[in-house]
Design goal:
The chain is of the alpha+beta class. The protein has a domain at 57-189: Umud Fragment, subunit A, CATH 2.10.109.10. 17% of the residues lie in helices and 24% in strands. The chain contains four helices and ten strands. Strands 1, 2, 3, 4, 7, 8, 9 and 10 form an eight-stranded antiparallel beta sheet that branches. The chain has a two-stranded antiparallel sheet with strand order 5-6. The longest helix is centred in the first third of the chain and has 24 residues, at 32-55. The termini are far apart.
Length: 206
């Protein structure tokens, strides 16, 4: 029977095919168990993204001239911490950048700097410009002083000449704060640190 072995295939048909044809051999479809496994992983990943965006950090676009020169007037991309203890006293400090719900527009949020905490005495408008600030302005051009109420903060833009802030809508409730801005992604990536420092005059004459 040795003469017959020369005519019988010594290997399976698949192994005798050229290597480039192996990729076209149909594979076995995924099982139901694998589909369920991958579906669960996808749901878990989406849930993690939702939790991170709601309670971790969020990417925001900021534009307008009110925060010059800290942020560009056209478009800046910033990272906002949405972890509540990060933007509540005592972690919230004067000089921090925050995102807040606008008291003037229901679906609008503003990015401003905290210049007064509960109990602080604030000069309404240090620039002295007469801007029609309603109840927050007097005949002296808004230079009267007010005490920030409990549970509120006083917000202002770095570029006060082009900012609608607490000089217009007064102190804002802590409940309206939505996050604390801590990093600029674009342009000039880097942390947005608190640039305000407490002035220690001591006994020196001013």
């Amino acid at each position: 029977m040795s003469w017959l072995r020369r005519f019988l295939p010594s290997r399976p048909l698949r192994s005798r095919l050229p290597l480039w044809t192996h990729r076209y051999v149909p594979s076995r479809p995924p099982t139901t168990r694998k589909l369920v496994h991958y579906s669960k992983r996808a749901v878990q990943f989406l849930g993690f993204l939702w939790l991170f965006e709601e309670w971790g950090a969020d990417v925001r676009l900021a534009w307008g001239a009110s925060m010059l020169p800290t942020l560009r007037h056209d478009t800046s991309i910033v990272l906002v911490s949405k972890y509540p203890p990060a933007f509540r006293p005592p972690n919230l400090k004067v000089g921090d950048l925050v995102v807040a719900q606008s008291p003037l527009k229901q679906h609008w949020q503003v990015l401003k700097r905290v210049v007064g905490l509960p109990g602080d005495t604030i000069c309404v408008d240090p620039s002295g410009a007469v801007r029609g600030h309603g109840g927050w302005e007097d005949g002296g051009g808004g230079r009267e002083h007010v005490v920030v109420p409990r549970g509120h903060v006083w917000l202002a833009g770095d570029n006060m000449s082009a900012s609608i802030d607490s000089r217009t809508f007064g102190p804002i409730s802590l409940a309206l704060l939505k996050g604390k801005v801590f990093y600029r992604i674009w342009p000039d990536p880097g942390p947005l640190e608190n640039t305000l420092r407490e002035l220690d005059t001591g006994d020196e004459d001013i």
